[in-house]
Amino acid sequence: MSTSPSGRGANNRIIIRVAIVLLLLCSAVFFVASRYKIVQFRDAKIDEILFYFKNGLAGGQSSSFTSAVWENIPYVIGLLIILLLPIILKLRWKKQPLRLRHQAYYAGGLFMISLALLIQSFSIPAYIIALAQSSKIYDQHYVDPRGVKLMFPSTKRNLIYIYVESLENTPAAKANGGMSDKSVIPELEKLALTNTSFSHRASGLGGALPAHGTTWTVAGMTAQSAGVPLKDGGVFGDRDRNGMGDFNKFLPGAYTLGQVLEKAGYNQSFLMGSNKAFGGRDKLLEQHGDYHIIDLTYAQKHGLVPQDYKVWWGYEDKKLFQFARDEATRLSKSDKPFNLQMLTVDTHFTDGWMDKDICKQQFEAKYDNVHSCASKQIATFVDWVKQQPFYANTTIIISGDHLGMQTPYYEEKIAGAPYQRTIYNAFINPAVQPARATNRQFATFDMYPSTLAALGVTVDGDRMGLGTNLFSNRQTLVEEFGGIDQLNAELAKRSTYYERRILSSS
Hints:
Blueprint: H1 5-40, H2 46-55, H3 63-88, E1 92-93, E2 96-97, H4 100-121, H5 124-131, H6 137-141, E3 150-151, E4 158-164, H7 186-194, H8 217-226, H9 239-242, H10 257-263, E5 267-272, H11 281-287, E6 292-294, H12 296-301, H13 317-332, E7 338-343, H14 366-386, E8 394-400, H15 407-414, E9 425-428, H16 447-454, E10 458-459, E11 463-464, E12 467-468, H17 477-481, H18 484-491, H19 496-502
Helix pairs in contact: 1-3, 1-4, 7-14, 13-14
């Protein structure tokens, strides 16, 4: 039995109307998503998003993503209703009813505009343009650490390296280089000002500038330990060659601080409150230094926390520092030097983890209180280390892993002022003093050779990877290129050298 022309026409109109509603729904989702990205995570780069999309969260904290979805559903529904109003109210166009084809044009136009805004909010056009260009920065400036002559002191120093989640100088007092009327992190402020801390300013707190490919946790760790940004070849990457898509290998061509110290006979441990597999950190640490990792899974397996324990991302910093005390004590009893590193987590966005047992409500904003509590915990741990017999021959380095990602929090503090946000650093009890610590323009990959220099290691040429020894007088790449923007323009481009000799081991 055939369908009449009028029946087919009715079916087509139904299909078109469904398509119109779907287009408007997508438009509402895209409008809300682009606004949320711009307001909440303006500084997050497409590299980071693609990295985690391709390589997985691997058990990482997903509640913030889930809550973000639920939080924005009412906005999507509200906007969808607004977008449907011209159709629902049967508005007229040039005194004529808004016909079905006009409704389709309307929905299609809104869809294209919303899609364009979403793409622009993630800076996808700039990302594609950059990857379509080629850079010789690695050919001309990369120094393979394997070929650098390193001279360790006769008595090798221990290293305690603390990566502090999202720690930058903005929460410090305005009088000392931050943007808070009253310092949120007075203990960390004091540690930086009374020890060695490299600053981009002539005086006061300052720090590392955000280099392309170093602006999220595992990328920040890679930069500071390997002297290179973290890239995976993007849309042009050869997954068979670089191995990172499947994540069997993590930058197999890189040679890191962990490998240098492993070869020098160090015992090495790394503590983190989350799952080590998040973002491939297990591969970075196990393939580049064979670290003993005490993460959430290890803590559950070995009775450090209950089997079902899960606070924030795993176990909180209160436990992290207690485990670090135990591990430092254990390592110090060996006749070998040790490299003890840790990654805090309480200050992770959104708003951080407020430990009610030890954190005080001193400020109106929760994130201020979280930072304040972190500052006290770190200072307390440093004080404990200073009281230990191994401290005399131990260097402590405190560094933010990257700039904070909770954009509204920092924008409120800056309030339109011409302020340069920088990543915190402090070198406590280094073996050497810097030639100059102020007016240094640098990035986090400069921490690699600088860490070795702080241990009393002579770094021939003062360069490793793309990093420069900050204790020396040699210019960093940021300084050579005339600023971080100029350097980032090159780092964003494709590099055959990076893809073939660092991203892979060919």
